[in-house]
Amino acid sequence: MSNRLYSQLIDLIPANQFGFVKGRSTIQAVQVLVDEINFVVYEQKMPLYALFLDVKKAFDSVSRYFIFEELVGTGRFSVGELNLLAEMLDANLLTVRDGISVSESIVQSNGVKQGGSMSPFLFNFALSDINSIFVDFPDVKIILYADDMVLLSSSLDDIRRSLELLIDYFAFRDLELNFDKCKIMKFRNKGRGRLAKSDTLIVKNEPIEFVSEFTYLGVVFQSSGISFSKHIAKKVRAAILATAALKSLPKSSLSTALKIFDLAVAPIASYGIQVIWPYLTLHDLNKLETVKSRFLKKALCLSKFMKSRLAYELADSEFFIEKLASQFSLPESPTFDKFIDNQLFKISEIDPAFYGAPAMVDQSWKNVCYTMRHALTRHACHGFHFLLCKRKIYHTSATKECVCKLCDKETDFYHFLSCDKNDLSLSQAANL
Questions:
Q1: Which processes are annotated in GO (biological process) (predicted)?
Q2: Among residues of the chain, what percentage have pLDDT more than 70?
């Protein structure tokens, strides 16, 4: 029945409804919003108001009676199919169990059934004619992802008047707005300037708050509309927290660890990248890259303060930004080229002796549960030079001033293994 319903009604679902429709996604909805911001704010040089609506308990409240009447009105279903749909949309009884007792039965006559395969599509169908509201407001656009909706217009008055009609439209379907959670943004050129005194929105005696940022379908928008630094910062934090939760990562083989990164961490950090890519700054790309460098350092048993270039060389792994550009077929840009050039320059600065370290010569430490991994990777990165050098000040490379406090000989960065006075093993040094 679910497939039958979809095939019979899909042509009625408007093109601006991106939720629970095959071939449509949150990313496409976000792309439409970004395109509209670009067109109105940066081509037409006008501010764009975006009203983000929150429908109170939308799926639990929508009128079943209204849905059934509309299904009948399409004339696309047989009597037998309508009888089946009527039975599915009929009132049902709910009970609540808390493990000790069972509540009295509660009659549920509104809302699409939770978890039902047809429920999201039936909700979309209930709103299938929503665009008719805006016939008299050609400058107002609406983007929908099921019950996530945003009204767009350069005219705040048009937003206000169309919203009043939309509230009545919702009421006819037993839906209502949660005004406390509805927010409005004013997108303007580079986010400059303050809100005007006239930038207020009160509908049905309910004030709607103006905000400087809003998370729409998982993407953080700022008042410029084309700066996504806060989105990147939020996703980077979430991805690093996901990495921190992987307690057994240092014991995994490196190949397994990289697969875990691709499956469990990268999707968190890269969400929305297809849309926001053209607007990312060099700072944004550098920040996003820290997701993989922090992950590699944990997998390699290195300090988060260790130079990232060394972690990439030890793991023989490509840059995160480079992988994303390839994976999503993202276009090259001066910012991307600058990022890659900077990373390659940093790698060119690595001491050639690094490539002769045991960890670079013998890769067996990359295997699962390799107990000496931490000792070998740390030796490759800093040679335990700080344990032997007489110099007290912090330094990251050996100079002629570096003298071994054990043998009094001039020492290079990897003197630890060649010093005949050193009795410590790599494992002992790593555990100090």
A1: DNA biosynthetic process
A2: 97
Taking the C-alpha atoms of residue 14 and residue 103, their distance in angstroms, rounded to an integer, is: 41
Contact predicate 19/122, CB 8 Å: no
Coil, strand or helix at 396: coil
The length of the chain, given as a count of residues: 432
Whether 104 shows a pLDDT value over 90: the answer reads no
Which structure tokens are listed for 257?
């660890």
- Strands 183-187 and 48-54 turn out to be antiparallel
CB 52 within 8 A of CB 184: yes
* Pairwise CA distance, residues 199 & 208, whole Å: 11
Residue from 60, 46, 228, 230 nearest 153 by CA: 46
- How many Å apart are CA 352 and CA 178, to the nearest integer? 62
Distances (CA, A) of 9 to 4, 76, 118: 9, 8, 12
Tokens of 312: 């990439």
**Quick check: 354 pLDDT over 60?**
yes
d(C-alpha 173, C-alpha 57), whole Å = 13
Tell me if residue 202 falls in helix, strand or coil: strand
What gap in Å lies between CA 159 and CA 114, rounded to an integer? 32
